[in-house]
Every structure is written in C-alpha cells, then in structure tokens.
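dumping the sequnces here before i forget
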Amino acid sequence: MRRVDGPSLVTGLVLIGLGGLFLLDRLEALDLRFGYLWPALLAGLGAILLASGLRRERP
Amino acid sequence: MSQHEPEQSQPTAPRKFLRSRDDRVLGGVAGGLGKYFGVDPVFFRIGLAALAVLGGVGVFLYLAALVFVPAEDGTGAEPPRRSRVLTVVAAIALVLLGGALLADGGWGFGFFFGPLGFVLVLGAAVWWLVWGRSGGGERNARGTLTRIALVLLVLAVSAALFVGAFWTAAAGGGVAVALLVIAIGALFALAAFRRNVRWLIVPALAITAGLGLVAAADVNLDGGYGKRVYVPASLADVREGYDLGAGRLEVDLRGVDFTPGERELDLEVGFGEAVLVVPNDLCVVARADVGAGYLRILGWDNGGFNVGWDARDRGREGARLVVDAHVGMGALQVVHDPRDAEWHEDRPSGRGRWEDIGEDDDPALGRSAACEAQTG
Amino acid sequence: MTPLRRDLDNRVVAGVCAGLGQRLGLDPVILRLSFVVAAAAGGFGVVLYGLAWLLVPADRAGASAPPGPPRRGSWQVAAGVGLLVLALLLLLRELGIWFSDPLVWPVVLAATGSTLIWHRSAAVRRQTTTRLRGLPRPADPITRGRVALGAALVVGAALLFLLANDAVSPARDVVLVLLAVVVALALILTPLWWRLARSLGEERSARIRTQERAELAAHLHDSVLQTLALVQRRADDPRAVAALARRQERELRAWLSGTSERTGREGVAAALEAVAGEVEEAHGTAIDVVAVGDTPLDEHGEAVVAAVREALVNAAKFAGNAPIALYAELEDGRIHAFVRDRGPGFDPAGVPADRRGLRESIVGRMERHGGRATVTTAPGSGTEVELVLDSPS
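..and the predicted 3d for all of it:
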C-alpha cells in the first residue's frame, strides 16, 4: 500500500487553489489585488514547506 | 559495546585548492582554479576579466584569492594552516574594502534585495529541492559544477516560462494559463513526489507567478505596442478612450477648448507609461489606479502595488473632465506640463503608503485648481 | 547518505564552509571566498552564513552515530508556519482588520524573537547523538545561535518601533544616560567581581577534584576489586572468568566515558546499558546503545527497562545477525525508547503463539505503568519497537 505523499499532494492543492483564484480573476468573477496576492502566494509556499517538514524521513 | 559496521566510512578531506606556480599570469589564481576543476584555465581568466570590467567584482575576487588561497610550493605538500584569527581579520578587512569599492560600481548595498540575490536564493531552493539535504552521488568538484549548471538551466527555463505566462495572460489568454496551472496542480497531486521530479515545482511556480502578476495588476496587452502620442486639436478629435498594450501613451489635451459639461475619458496601458497632459483651467477629476508602479495625479504621487486615487468631485458647473485611467504595470501621470512627467533623479514624493488613498486624504491634491473655482 | 553538518574541527568561524566543503567535495577556501564576496556586495553573504550557522547542526567528529528515530525537518515546519502566519497577517491588513504598520510589525518581530528565545526543547532534542550522560546542554551551539538571533530580533523590533514612531531622539537621550551609568558601574565593580569569581572558581575546582577522587576510589572498590575477588574464586572456570572480565571491562569503559557529571543516583540510561550488555552476552549479538539525556530510575522506569530487555531478547532471537540498535531519549521522567533491528521482520498477523505472548508482555507491561508500546514490522523490512513512558505529573 503506497502512502499518500504529503508534500506532493499539498503542492498540487496549492497550485489548483492559486490557479482557480487567478481563473476567477480572469473571468471577472472577482478582482484580485496585490494585497490579496501576497497572502495567497505566501500561504501556498508556507503550506508546501510545512508539508515537506512534517513528512517523516525514515532512514 | 560491540561495534557494527559504521553507516558511512570516515569522509576524506577534499582536494585542496592552491594557486598555481607554473601556470600563472599574475598570481596563478586562474591556473589554480583550472587545475582544481580540471578545466582549461582560460575560461577562468575570461570570467575574471569580465567580472573585473563589470563592476569590479573580478578585481575584488582576485585580491581575496591572493590573500586566502595559499600558493603551491611545488612539492605537493599541504601548506601550513594559517592562524584563525588572522583569517577572520583579513576577511573582515576585505569585506569592508570590497563594500567600499563596489558600492558605486553597480552592485552596492542595495544588492541585498537586488536581482542577483533573488537568483541565488532561487538557485539554492532548486538545489535543495533536487538533491535535498542528503543528496547522493559524487562529491567531487566536477559533479558540483555539473549540478550548478543544471540548476542554472532550470532557473533559465523557469524564467522563460514566467515571461511566457505573463505575456500570454496579459494578451488575453489568462483563462488558458489558469487552467494550465490547475492541470499541473492536479498532476502533482496525483503523481508520486519522486526526488528527480521535485524540481518541476519551480517552473510550475514560475508560471503561476507570471499569471498572478497579470491577475493582480490587471495587465492588458490588447491594443498594440509602441509609443503613441495624441494631440487632439479640438473637442471633436478627443476620443472616448485611449488604450495601449505596452509602451508609452501620451495624450496632450492642452489645445482643446472644453465646453461646459462633463466629459469622460478612459485611459488604459497594460505595461508601460501613460501621460495625460491637461490644461490649467480645466477641472479634472481623476479615478486612477496602477497595479504595480507609480501614480501621479497633479500634485499628488505615490508608488507601490495597487496604488489608486479616487477624487470625489464637487464641481457643479463649467467644463469638467472625468478621467478613468488604469495602468497594469508601470507609471501613470496626469500633469499640467509634460516636463513634469519626465523622470528626475530626486523627485519630491508624496506620502509613501501602500494602500489606496481615498477621501481621507487632502482633497486639494490630485484635482486641478480649476475645480475649486467651480464650487464657488 | 551524509547530511550536511558544520565541521567544527576544521572551522575558521563556525565551520560552515568546512562542512559544506566536505559535503560538496570542494576545498572550503573556495566557499570562503564566495561568502566574502557575497558579504562585500551588500551583506548578503553575512546573512547566508548566519542562516547556515543557525540551521546546520554541528558535527561531533568521530561519532559514527547509528540512525536515530525519524526526525522531523523542523526548520521547514517553522518556516512553513511562519509563512502561513505572515500570510494571515497580510490578509487581515488588506481586509482592514489592522492597527497600523508602525505598531504591528515591531510587535510581530518581537514575538518572533521571543519565540526563538524560549523555544528550547526542539533544539535540545536535535543534538547530534553520541554516547553521553550529562553533556552540558546550555552550551549547545544551536541553542546559543537561536537565542542570539531571537535577542537580536527583539532589540531590532524595539528600535523599529522607536524609529517608526519618531521617538528615536528622546529615546537616544535616555539610552545615553543609561549607558553612561552602566559603564561607570562596570568600571567600578569589575575588578571586585573578577577577583570574587576567580576565588570562587578555584575553590570549586578544588572541591570537584576531591570529590572525583573519592568517587573514583569508591567505584574501583565496588566494581573492580570485587570482580578481581570473584575471578580468584572462579579461577578454574575459564569461561566464567572470561565472562566476568568482559563484563567488568565493559562496565569500566562505560564509567570512564561518562564521568563528566555524576548525578549520584542510578539513572535509566545506566540501566539500559546494563540490560543491553546482558542480552549481548547471553545471545552473542551486537547491540548499539545510544542514550540522550538521563532521568532517575523509579518503578515505572524499571518496568520500561524490563520491556526493553524483552524487546532486545526478541530481536536477538529472531533478527539473525543483523545489528540491533537501542535508542533512548530520557528527560524528566519521560522515557522514549526504540529497539530496532534490520532482520527479516515478520508478518504481524501470522505470528507463532510464543512470540505473540512476548509482545503482550511488552505492550501489556507498558500499559500497566501508564505508557505505551508500538511494534512496527513487515516481512523484509526489519522490526521496530517503540516504547514511550510519559512523566507521571
């Protein structure tokens, strides 16, 4: 049974989330400003780092 | 306590880097480098010379090498260890000297936030992603050079993707790029996170960043490229709106006689500069925003991200021009005199806040004096 | 695979370049040059070096440490959490739920600094494992680095606050006065303090010497002399003599390497080592023992030691000739031990009756004393028994 690989999943989700956010902006459903862009990017990076840090590295 | 076989053999010290004695033009630094990496010293000579010309770093590097790197003494013996204190003192002296020398040469102390620092950090991130902390394989100098080259390649490709995503999104394909990002995300989530595929995250993030910039700044490259200057001679020649994809857009309205009443004018530049020159006696009320860059409305200016200005108008009669302007990334200026729109080294700046300025700001700024005359 | 470590033996400043050079296969001089250039061009190199100093653990040269329990990449967790918090802050700022920039950011900096200063347990746990008992922990360079950075952040936050609120000039006057007073006091008091500290130090070292000599005598009396007496009595049984001699040798060796700080009481670490020695002798396998920290031995601790013994015997019996590792973290009554072997492993489902019984004796025993035991195994991938006992309070 292969384990779910945390960092990869989180990276994928982050990319999907950001992509969706930008899609909505381009479709005029919402207006994204830099004030919201920075938190989104930083949060995404943070989530990826967190996931890779929590991954147990078995020697 | 019995010992089992140790996990790894005791690591041997890497080969020492020495200044060459035979192959020397000046101090043998390039020769030593060549011998150490197994590469023709000519490359290092060219590199050092180029760096010396571009900002003087090469000179500094050479000096540092002369101080820190011991010279071969021809016998192949290990050179004696220097005193630690001396080395640290020499390092500090060099750093100060170098800082003073290079400060004017284009690197300077703004370097910390500069592009090279950014590239270094990115490169380190890619390195860590690919080889992690325990990365296997060869530990020799050649292997390391190869890795550096690979990292630079990934960075170059990512930079190209960034620009490509930006341009595509700004030209109207934002939806497509966004869908692409989502698709990549889905791939990541489904695929195994093998170490040799980890580096893909950098190009993926580059595409996302390019798209994000366009989305947040609302950059629109429809409308052509280049420099456009419009000088309408009469009211009839004044269009409803002027727009430009990328470049410089100039609209000079000083020759126009405005009739009483409100008139609207739209300005849009995706990437570049927009300059609107208005006559002194016209009441101009502007709603303007810049996604990222610089905004100047008559007496008021500011810079940063999502800078905006929205002047509430109070004029009732007379001629009034309501401007609705947007620049994605770049500069937007509404001035009475085109010379005001030229870039100066030290231009007096207004407040330096990073948010939208609204009605709570000084209402006299950002509106032409002519509007005051109208309120009576 | 070798992780990156700072090489303290070959260091110039903090061993960053030396360690990096080892890792990359490069002469450290090249890396030093790079850092110096980067430092000259805007201070970037200093920042990088500082980061490396903090985040890269130091290497205890000569210690071939057996693999410890799975380590969490704690810097990534910290950075990730930090970024998430920063993102949240920026979002709140954008939404308007904010005080004002000059107020909030210094507070954030100060909070980060304080967290670094007070968050110690992770740094203590990340110490490179060696056979130690009582290695002085506060001198741990990683902890020192973190405390220093935390303090710098707090000071920086205070300065930033003053700067942003235009309060620098009046503050400067106050600071100057304070500084003058402090310098004056220091000049007056320093010689006195110096003499006092010196005499105290001499007294203390004399006391320690006498104490150590007494302990040495006591230990020799208890152990070596008794063993020699036993050897004389059993002189006709060579195997017994050899066993006695080996046992004494091991015990003496262990004692010699751990004499820097004596707790005066038998600790769990010693008990674990003793137990491992017994199993080693009885079954003829090699057991590597690593104990980090120590804690006094009470009845719960004894139960854990007994459980460890069972696990070791298990491993010795069924793991073939694969090496066995016993790793234990001991602190304030909390015992966290791993018995790991690289043997053939077993399928937890299809276990013969006697082995399952043993597992119950391990798991059951731990649970009766308020702890827990976990057995992780699979055919072909060895076995790991994890025993955890939290401190009763």
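Chain A has one domain: 6-52.
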